[in-house]
User: What shape does this take?
Amino acid sequence: MVSIFSVLSSLVSIYTLLCFVRVMLSWFPGAEYSKFGLVLRQMCDPYLNVFRRFRFLRFSSFDFTPAIALCVLMALQAFFTSLATGASFRVSTILAMLVMLVGNILTSVLGFVAVILLVRLIAYLIVGDGQSSYTIWTALDRALSPVIFRIAGLFFGGRPISFVKALVVSFITLLVFSVVISYVIRVLGTLISMIPF
Assistant: This one.
């Protein structure tokens, strides 16, 4: 039985790598339409499309569905690896792992967006607003504006605020939420794992 879990762990690990390559090919124009890209699309898209149905995983032009799909595969691979090493699992352990997985995904998404906000804030201070011509910063601002003004609106109500102030407030808010969620998930996972079944 242990060897079956070991094989399953290896298969999930290989499939995770294939899905990762598939996602990376989508960043390069035309690469996903090569022969290799088409084969990967046929193998990986049915799985990746399951997560694309969840609209809440997309913020403006940011699509976190591939990252979530890869995290689920990595969790499944870790689960099979644990079973392959002979670890016994209780229902509470599985529930704790699921809670931790959801928490890790959530904090990863928040951390990623926070890093993007920090990079934009630094670029704003160095380069300026980037409105003189169409630049990468202009495209990023268009994608970020709905998110940051919605977050900042929680604190400022209907009062108008500057783009920089919205960036700073959103960055700090995401950092605080990430730390709080990480702590709550860790405590919750520990409490669930102590359930005796």
Remarks:
- The chain has six helices and two strands.
